[in-house]
Design brief:
Blueprint lengths: L1 E14 L6 H4 L3 H8 L5 E3 L4 E5 L3 E3 L2 E13 L5 E11 L2 H4 L2 E14 L2 E15 L9 H40 L3 E2 L4 E2 L6
Helix pairs in contact: 2-4
């Protein structure tokens, strides 16, 4: 039985003043990815593609581990985007062959009343054909359970983002100033030294 699950999560984060505006920080996708998940669960495949090994998830009586390749990129204005490009489900081959995960999100900075804030949204959809025993479970129960699971995944990511992003931003600013790679008078990098 083919079933669709979906969840959406938004985030708004006040940003304390730093001598380097956060839009410069957001131009480095790998930093955002490291704020979203523990570094032991992330593998960088290319400049924009990252493999995220999620923690095993329990869905009804199933235990699965999604492995998601995510493309993360930034546009000139400083908005960072992410989208899933490939998914593998470890644990049950039947589901792996009948599973599609679509993740899309963005994060950008804006100014309101003289204060800088980050604003973002993530949408997660899963299409899956569940094994035969689940075809006897009423669809509303499956959807409620699946939607709740996706919402908890996005909420966990949001909570980590709220904890880690600003801490990493502050560390990054300090390292850039120590490296003297940022010209605070002109609000621009002299020579950008990626980490």
């Amino acid at each position: 039985m083919a079933t669709k699950f979906q969840a959406c999560q938004s985030v708004e984060i006040p940003v304390n003043y730093q001598p380097i505006p956060i839009k410069h920080y957001l131009r480095q996708p790998q930093r955002l990815v490291n704020a979203l998940a523990d570094s032991s669960r992330i593998e960088q495949l290319s400049a924009e593609i990252f493999r995220l090994k999620m923690r095993p998830l329990a869905f009804m009586s199933l235990s699965i581990q999604p492995i998601v390749d995510i493309r993360v990129w930034t546009l000139e204005g400083g908005t960072i985007y992410l989208e899933s490009v490939k998914t593998e489900i470890r644990g049950i081959d039947y589901i792996n062959r009948r599973f599609q995960l679509d993740l899309k999100g963005n994060l950008s900075s804006y100014e309101k009343d003289g204060n800088i804030r980050l604003q973002g949204i993530a949408n997660l959809e899963v299409f899956v054909e569940l094994p035969p025993p689940f075809s006897f479970t009423p669809k509303p129960i499956l959807e409620t359970t699946g939607n709740g699971l996706l919402k908890s995944v996005l909420l966990t990511i949001k909570q980590r983002l709220l904890r880690q992003l600003l801490i990493d931003y502050q560390r990054w600013v300090e390292s850039q100033i120590l490296d003297s790679s940022f010209d605070s008078d002109n609000n621009n990098f002299k020579v950008f030294k990626p980490e």
